Amino acid sequence: MKSIKSIAIFLILVFIIVIGITLISSSQPDKVSEINSIVNREPSVNPVTTPVNNPPEKPAVKTYTLREVATHSNSASCWTIVNSNVYNLTNWINQHPGGPEAILGICGKDATLAFEAQHGGQRRPETELAKYKIGAYAK
């Protein structure tokens, strides 16, 4: 009988505590909302330990001298310079609409004047040339 009495007293105490907490929280809505905002907020960011999401660095542009470009002056390896950029035109030699001679004539050289005279301001040749860019001309 004593154990039933103990259980009843325990349950009454739990009930009183639950009711008390409910009454306290409903009478102080500001405290409840403050607690909720603390619980639900984003974790704070520590600038010392949190990595910064910087944009990826652009890889350094490879530069070539005129001497390097000049060593690629034939159909086996054809490089040229146009507007301070270096292009490997080896695979374009036989595809050029004007024939392979048009490209072979500029291998190993700065072809800026020749390209501009023939294609300057034309979108299609400039777009095609851009596909073969391998770096920049280091003057």
The amount of beta strand, in percent, is 5-15%
Report the span from N to C terminus: 103 Å
Supply the number of helical segments.
6
**Largest beta sheet, briefly?**
5 strands, mixed
Keywords for this entry:
6 helices, single chain, five-stranded mixed sheet, 139 residues, rod-shaped, alpha+beta
Describe this structure in words.
- The chain has 139 residues and is an alpha+beta fold.
- It contains 6 helices and 5 strands; from the N terminus they run H-H-E-H-E-E-E-H-H-H-E.
- The N and C termini lie far apart (103 Å).
- The mean pLDDT is 83.
Q: How would you concisely characterize the structure shown here?
A:
The chain is an alpha+beta fold and 139 residues long. The protein has 6 helices and 5 strands; from the N terminus they run H-H-E-H-E-E-E-H-H-H-E.
Secondary structure layout plus pairing:
Elements: H1 2-27, H2 29-40, E1 63-64, H3 66-70, E2 73-74, E3 77-82, E4 85-88, H4 100-104, H5 112-119, H6 123-130, E5 133-137
Parallel strand pairs: 1-5
Antiparallel strand pairs: 2-3, 3-4, 4-5
